[in-house]
Specification:
By secondary structure, the protein is mainly alpha-helical. It has twelve helices and no strands. Belongs to the EamA transporter family.
């Protein structure tokens, strides 16, 4: 389980780094772009993927291109969500995106829907509603960003999971898909930053690049340790899946409330509890 714990820590660390970016005057867009340089290099070095399947006629390039475009843009939405809605809601919204990939499994991929999984999905949607709900005063203070960005994170990561499923069904190994995805995301991310630079909205800085290196290490660590967790417990995929998602929601909640003093209403806290319960139900169904 040590690998799962390390993966949880890396996942929450990504949110912490995004939370601290504004305090240290880091350009998040640049950091995200450099993150893909690091993640791509580490994928090639640590996983050493064979790219032969990507040259075959049936390679799912449409899904891979979709991932390459979505990853940096949803990463930007995650950064905005952490800034406006906090780590607790953002991490929970990201983890609850599994509800969309589950629905796609039933609708698009022919998986059978059990009563327990249906209840878990309904509970997860209720949890999401509770977490993004704000009082009239809270809405006035933060505007629509406090609930809009968590919903974008929820929807965006759900679509990313579905595209991953498409790539996996096409027979592309995980390492090869990660390598292609990171390379495409790098191109999109730097294209966005070059556009901003030409418009005079940003300038490239060394400390934003260094922040991107840290972000890339945490991002890749999350993926690597999660894979190692599945390899160490091959007979217990549900345990790894549940532990990872519950761990991120729980640790994210602790860090958000204790370190960054994020204020949650009783309804928001109930939403976090419901999210944990929904993940348990879905994993054990």
């Amino acid at each position: 389980m040590i690998y799962v714990l390390l993966s949880v820590a890396c996942s929450v660390l990504v949110s912490v780094l995004l939370k601290l970016a504004r305090r240290f005057e880091i350009d998040v867009g640049q950091a995200i772009a450099w993150n893909y340089v690091v993640a791509g290099a580490l994928t090639a070095l640590m996983l050493q993927p064979s790219l032969a399947t990507l040259r075959e006629p049936g390679a799912p390039w449409l899904a891979l291109i979709g991932l390459g475009v979505l990853l940096p843009t949803i990463f930007l939405a995650l950064a905005a969500s952490v800034r406006h809605a906090g780590i607790v809601r953002s991490d929970a919204a990201q983890r609850l995106s599994l509800l969309l990939s589950l629905l796609a499994a039933f609708v698009l991929f022919g998986e059978q829907l059990t009563e327990l999984k249906a209840f878990g999905i309904a509970l997860g949607l209720l949890a999401l509603l509770c977490m993004v709900w704000r009082s009239v005063q809270g809405t006035a203070e933060r505007g629509v960003a406090g609930w809009l960005y968590p919903l974008l994170v929820f929807g965006g990561f759900g679509v990313i999971d579905i595209l991953f499923k498409r790539v996996a069904l096409a027979g592309v190994p995980l390492g090869a898909s990660l390598q292609a995805m990171f390379a495409l995301a790098l191109l999109v991310a730097f294209a966005l930053q070059l556009w901003r630079r030409l418009q005079g909205r940003t300038r490239f800085t060394a400390h934003s690049a260094l922040a991107g290196v840290a972000l890339g290490l945490a991002n890749f660590g999350n993926i690597l340790f999660y894979l190692r967790g599945h390899q160490a417990l091959p007979q217990h995929p549900a345990l790894v899946f549940a532990s990872m998602n519950i761990g991120v929601v729980a640790l994210g909640a602790l860090v958000g409330m204790l370190v960054f003093r994020e204020r949650l209403s009783q309804l928001n806290l109930a939403g976090v509890a419901l999210a944990l319960l929904a993940i348990v139900l879905i994993a054990t169904a």
